[in-house]
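Much of the work behind modern protein science is quiet bookkeeping, done one molecule at a time. The protein below has been through that process, and both of its lines are reproduced in full.
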Amino acid sequence: MAKFEKANSVGEWLDQRLNLTTFNKVMMTEYWIPKDINFLWAMGVLLATTFSILVISGLFLMMYYKPDINLAFDSVNYTIMQEVAFGWLFRHMHGVAASVVFLIIYIHMFTGIYYGSYKQGREMIWISGMLLFMTFSAAGFSGYMLPWGQMSYWAAMVITNLFGGVPVIGDALVVWIRGDFNVADATLTRFFMLHVFLLPVVIMGLIGLHFYTLRIPHVNNQSSEEFDFDEEAEKYLAGNKKESKVIPFWPIFISKDLAVLGVFLIFYFYLVFFHYNFAMDPVNFDPADNMVTPAHIYPEWYFLWSYEVLRGFFFDIAGFKAFDIGLIAFAFANGIFLVLPWLDRDPKILPAHKRPVFFIWFWVLMADLIVLTVYGKLPPTGTNAWVGFYAAVGFIVLFIVLPIVTKIDAKKRGSL
């Protein structure tokens, strides 16, 4: 057994048992971050803050929410919004945060793609991040169902129907997910459990994994320069801070993060108090009615791009049904980002502006995703349907040609 001397303070007593001094060094004062970064590297702190807002506001909402199809709608739109003191505030905070968190995720994700922060030792950082994105997506969808409005009900009907396309077990899988032959009370209670317990626990675990994976290859920088972190840390600790290429996470880097966080919170609370309606579909203020189908069913804005890939294939091709093709395309769109580190065949880690062909590829992808998002909310008729089809095909083609694109850049530089 370890020998303990008498502690002179509570802090010393805890340090003897939890080794807090070493933990503080490893995680804070001697956790080294490159100097050559910008505000886009603060997205991780913004995500952690927004997730905390979701958890805290969700706890208050859960006190009054009723996971019952006969009570859920009124518990949200009457009890919480009108009877509970500041219930409206917690609902607005939760709804806006649920939308804004995906904006931050997308910025974080495409910053990683632009700067090549997914290759050569950073694959697990990327994979853990993509697993977080998928889990947040599941949490977002399960939460969207809870108000039990018209769009909640019919979106749940459409999404759960997708599982019917799984070979052999599709129909049984749909019934198992719903807990009924239709979207009903059993479906609501299952999604409630997923949203308030299981998925938040998984998210917390994945956040821990994501932070852990950052410790080995270290954080990337704007120029994607590779250098010896230990050597640069020694320079910093020796007092040569100007020449050192790194800064400590605490207090230097976190102070920059907190400055960005302050600006973000102004933007966030502006939306909460003055423009919260963007996060709440007006159709969802009508109670769920399984006898009345909305004229146009669509998900929240952050799912529109993948939804448009799903429905973009609206006609049969070479004997394959449109539904089956759309389902395959949807699975491709949601899974392809996981294997991005292996699709990029350029051996060098470089930002997109130093890879001319990849630079074009990146911005074409951005434009295509915007088109998919815009047309995903429009009725799939006439010209809209064809634009959605070509945008969906374009998305798939972009990732098919990515290995060729990255090899061209590498050959031009003489890296291959």
User: Anything to note?
Assistant: The chain has a mean pLDDT of 93. DSSP finds 17 helices and two strands in the chain. Residues 185-215 form the longest helix (31 residues).
